[in-house]
Amino acid sequence: MDSKFLQSMNISLDLALEAREIIRGETGQEVPGVRVDKETYDYATVTTVHIEDNNAQVIMGKPVGKYITIEAPVIKENNQQAHREIAQILAEQLKKLFNLPMELNVLVVGLGNWNATPDALGPRVVEQCLVTRHLYNYAPQELQGGMRPVSALAPGVLGITGIETAEIIRGVVEKTRPSLIIAIDSLAARSADRIATTIQLADTGINPGSGIGNKRAGINQETMGVRVIAIGVPTVTHAAIIAQDAIEKYIQSTGGEPKDTSTIIKNLLEPLGGNLTVTPKEIDTLIDDTAQIIAGAINMVMHPGISPEDYAYYLH
Fold first, then answer.
1. Which of 31, 66, 143, 232 lies 20 to 30 A from 117 at CA?
2. pTM of the predicted structure, to 2 decimals
3. Any chance you could tell me the propeptide residue ranges (predicted)?
4. Sign of torsion over alpha carbons 171, 172, 173, 176
5. Rg of the chain in Å (alpha carbons)
6. Would you kindly state where each structural domain of the chain is located, as residue ranges?
C-alpha cells in the first residue's frame, strides 16, 4: 500500500510511526529531517520519531515535534503484571515530555464519545484519573505529599453538545489556567494489528477525529495558549485499508500484476458514504484495559507520592 492510495481514499494516518513506514517503503531511505530512536523492554518496544524541520513536517504530514510510540501486543492479553509494566513504561515516557513544578495545575482531557465504545477511551481514562485541584481549596487536610493539582474534563463531541470540543476546552483553560493539558483520544490505525496494542504520545497536540476523516478544531498550544501532550490508542482501522491489503495479498499469491484498486474499493463502500471504519468485537475489554493502563501512568506521573493501593481513596 502506498501514499497515493491513502490520498485517493482520503485517509490520514494518526500514527507518526506508520507515516514514516509508508514513506520509507516508497523511497527506500530515511525521511530527511526525521530522526528515530528505539528502546526495547520485556513487554514493549518504544520508538521515538523526531520530526525536526518544516520539510519533514510536509513530507510526514505531522507538525514538528516528538512522537513516542509504545508497541505492546501483550496489552491484548489477560496479564495484569504486564499491564502494570506497560503503565510504568508509559509513565517514564510521559515524564520525558514535560518538567513542571509540582504546584502547577494540569488539566486532563478525555476526548471522544462515551456512547460509542471505540471512541470512549478518553472519557474512560478520565473516570480513573485522580483529580485533586478541588482538594487544595476545599479539603487540604486530605492531601498527601507528592500530589499535584489535577483537574479533568470529558467534553463529549459536537454531535452531543452542539459545541466544538476545542471551544469547551478553551473556556475551561481560560478559567482554570492550567500549565499543561494532557489530551487522550482514540486513533485510527493503518494496520489492524495495532488496534489496542499501540500507544502514541505526542508533544504537538491533537486534531480530534482526523483519523476517520472528521477533522475538528485542533487542540494544541496555538489554539489553547498552553502546551498540549496527546496520548492516543488506535481503536479502529479503515475498511478500505483491509480491502486493499486483501486484494494485494491475493494478487501476490496468484502471481498477478499490481493494479490500481481504489476505484473498485470506492464503489464497494459507496453505499456507506465511502468511509467505513471497523473495530474488533472485543473492543469493550480492550478499551477498559487500555484506559486503565493510561490512567495508571498519568496517576504515577501526576502524584508520585501516592501508591497505586491508595488510588481508590481519591477516586469517586
1. 66
2. 0.90
3. 1-14
4. positive
5. 20
6. 3-314
